[in-house]
What does this fold into?
Amino acid sequence: MREASVEIEDEGPPAEARGPGTGAGPAWMPLVRPSIPDPERIAGDVRTILSSGTLTKGPYLDELEQRVAEYLGVRHCVAVSSCTAGLTLLLKVAGLSGEVVVPSFTFPATVHAVAWNGLDPVFCDVDRETLTLSPSAALDACGPRTSAILAVHTYGTPCAVEELATVARSRGIRLFFDAAHAFGSRSRGVPVGQFGDAEVFSLAPTKLLVGCEGGIVATNDDALAEGCRIGRDYGKAPDYDCLFVGLNARLSEIHSAVALASLEDVEERIERRNELAARYRELLGGLPGVRFPLVRPWDRSTFKDFTLVLDEAAFGLDAEGLGLALSAEGIETRRYFTPPVHRMEAYRFLMRNGPGRHLPVTEDASARVITIPLWSAMTGEEANRVAGTIRRIHEAKTVGRGTA
Ligand SMILES: *Cc1c(COP(=O)(O)O)cnc(C)c1O
It folds into this structure.
């Protein structure tokens, strides 16, 4: 057994990276720093909104939906209060029944949207290379009660969209995407947002398009868009009759203004994140036991997260141990996604009820993944610090190997 902590002799981070006035430990580096749009511009918008008296369902919402629809190349965008609410509404208005095939290797909100609708999640394995939903496993997971597949563009990596569409078509079921990570991702040049029956983005602070909170349902399906529009407003028709049990999932004017400002430079941020990801790949790619989830050459990822898949034997430390060692060096990490959703307390009941499935790739990946810092305004030096620290931790753990 190896110990989780490591002793590393080095000169430490550059002076400007150290905590103010302490001269002791290195400066704390967070996993992510949200990209906040220009506060001066937002302040002007907020003044306009507050003095207009229209705080929700107003012109900023309309403009956001229109501009995002243009950016994504889709017929409809319906802005909502969160991605979770958008997914929940979408599954509701799609009139699903029975089971929905979902990954377990995801953020739990994906599965919550299924469960809140009284539908049964059927957990399905991911592809070993990309860590997105495996089309062949999805086909196997489909049974007579399956009414939809809900796949996730994990870390911003586009799913195997064409193969999943073929599976859905062959079974006559719906295909939806949780695109929380993937605002600006593309597959074969086609923006994520255009795939399946509908896709749902998140505007939460750590995602690509920031609205403080919020979500966007993107679809070319008129009926789904109309359903989400009514559903976000309690399910209320214009004559005040409720057509179905809706939510209050509206996006306020202030949130819409923040998201509109964030849209302006989203392309630059995605380009920058791809540069940083390339730097990480270059600096860490040669390390024994370090692998990266595959982004296929015809796809563009947002790198909402940059995740390593570790082989403990070759690297010298497992993912949990590397996380502790990096934390001791002032670098924050997370384990996206550990535990996988099917192992969470909220979903234990499914294991007993049967749909819980054998998910070997999910189990293996969740034991090996570690997500390292990456944000749009990160400097090359900051990325160098992270990569250099990982390299030194590896070397300290493996030094002297093969010479004993
Ligand atoms: C963040 C996230 C969500 C939830 O988004 P909210 O806007 O916070 O509701 C859903 N799915 C995935 C994969 C996420 O990462």
Remarks:
- The pocket of pyridoxal-5'-phosphate is lined by residues 82-84, 106-107, 109-110, 152, 178, 180-181, 202, 204, 215 (CB under 6 Å).
- The two ends are 17 Å apart (CA to CA).
- Residues 1-22 have pLDDT under 50 and may be disordered.
- The chain is about 40% helix and 15% strand.
